[in-house]
Amino acid sequence: MDRLDSRGVRRALRVLGSVLAAGAVCAALSIAMTLVPGLRTTGSGNAGQAYGAAASSSAVLVLFYMAKTLRLQRDETTLQREELALQRQEMQLQRTELELQREEMRRSAGELHRSAEADLRRLHMDLLKMSIENPELAAVWPEYAPGLSTVQNRQYNYANLLYCHYMLAHRLELLAEHEVFGHLVDLVKSPVFRDYWEAGRQARHSIAVDTQEYRFARLVDEALRVSGPQLP
């Protein structure tokens, strides 16, 4: 904008200079033509003829300067429009670049969140493994259902470990959803896993419906529906 303002000032000075120059030339030409011997006679009308000729010539000269000034103004306006268009394009490019940077930051934040979530789930799986391998540590975990034997509790812990394994593979997109679903259909054929899943049904009611864990739990329910009831 500063460049456009300075150009407008220069243009106004050029126009003013052209007008002053044209006026000076007209005045000089009028004086010069009154001094031409052929136009000076004893008749009183000769001086008027000299001034008339000078005025005509001056008018032509003024029109020439005005035409030139208008052309310069038109060229200047065209250049200003082109510069404004370039500035708009540059601003649009800057906005696009900023949007790409924001998108990259959002994607990086999402990847960091998924990585942290995956690490937390791996830790959970490690803790489950420790409880399976050590009955004393398994006693620290709450029972999945009242009256479970030590063997049943270890089996439920292992079923939970399998569930977490497939949920993590689904969350990290290590397996396509139809592949995960195929594994779940096979998994729910196990009576022990079915009992484990039924024992945790009440606890799953507290899972928020807008989470990945809720969607994966619904995927297990769908696998159970597809698999159908199992014979004892």
Structural features, described:
- The chain has 232 residues and is mostly helical.
- The chain has 2 domains: 108 residues; 86 residues, no CATH class.
- Helices cover 81% and strands 0% of the residues.
- The protein has 8 helices and no strands.
- Helix 1 packs antiparallel against helix 2, helix 2 runs antiparallel to helix 4 and helix 4 crosses helix 6.
- The protein starts with a helix and ends in a 5-residue tail after the last helix.
- The model has no long low-confidence stretch (mean pLDDT 77).
Mean pLDDT value: 77
Poorly predicted regions are: none
Number of strands: 0
What about the largest sheet? none
The oligomeric state of the chains shown is single chain
Question: Outline, from the CA principal axes?
Answer: rod-shaped
- Which sequence of SSEs, written as H and E, runs from N to C? HHHHHHHH
Query: What fraction of the residues are assigned to beta strands by DSSP?
Result: under 5%
Q: How much helicity do the residues have?
A: over 70%
List the helices and strands and how they pair.
Layout: H1 2-34, H2 44-133, H3 135-138, H4 150-171, H5 177-187, H6 191-199, H7 201-204, H8 212-227
Helix pairs in contact: 1-2, 2-4, 4-5, 4-6, 5-8
List keywords for this structure.
single chain, 232 residues, mainly alpha, 2 domains, rod-shaped
Brief characterization of the structure:
This protein has 232 residues and is mainly alpha-helical. It has helices spanning 2-34, 44-133, 135-138, 150-171, 177-187, 191-199, 201-204, 212-227.
